[in-house]
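Open question from group meeting: does this chain pack into something compact, or does most of it stay loose? Before anyone orders reagents, we agreed to write out a predicted structure and look at it together. Recording both the input and the output here so the notebook holds the full record.
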Amino acid sequence: MTGSHGEADLDRRVADAIERLGNGLRSLSQRSARGHGLSPLQQQAVLALSRQPEARCEVNALAAEFDVTTPTMSDAVGALERKELLTRSPIPDGRRRRLVLTARGEEVARELAAWDEQVVTSLGKLPTSDRATTLHTLLQVIADLQRQGVVSVARTCTTCRFFSPDKHSDPSAPHHCELLRTPLPLTDLRTDCPEHQPAA
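Structure tokens returned:
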């Protein structure tokens, strides 16, 4: 199949492949979470709290991160608190609470860290150039979906105000980071950059 119809069919098949991959990741997440007596959302919260800066360790921030309502995230956090995996620590403004993993919570986070290892291992079998192109493609799709309001939180290179696309002729490093003042190899594109500032 060629022409625009063939391209549309290709787009649908790529979307179908991403959906199947998502189903596989969901299955791995559920299996890992169940093994620790958690729900998938509780597992996501534990892992996020073990990796994120303190400023994002609050119920509202986690709710936005995982596209759930604040009450839903509050329920998940309450369950983790009852399981003694986290505590709530007052923030100086006196109104909000920072979520902090307990020693047991940190231990569980380490045990959960490899929940997606099968996918990572499968990706590792592919050539580096294929992985870099795939990352680049997915980040471009994520950026477009964020502009449409489908994805609410994306701290990727492609959604950052410092990202200058197609500034260099090198196909392996076509973009530029204005913050770092350096070309961006496709292999170095970030999915969660601590210096990220949303593009206008």
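Observations to bring back to the group:
Residues 162 and 181 are 9 Å apart (CA to CA).
The first strand starts at residue 86 and ends at 90.
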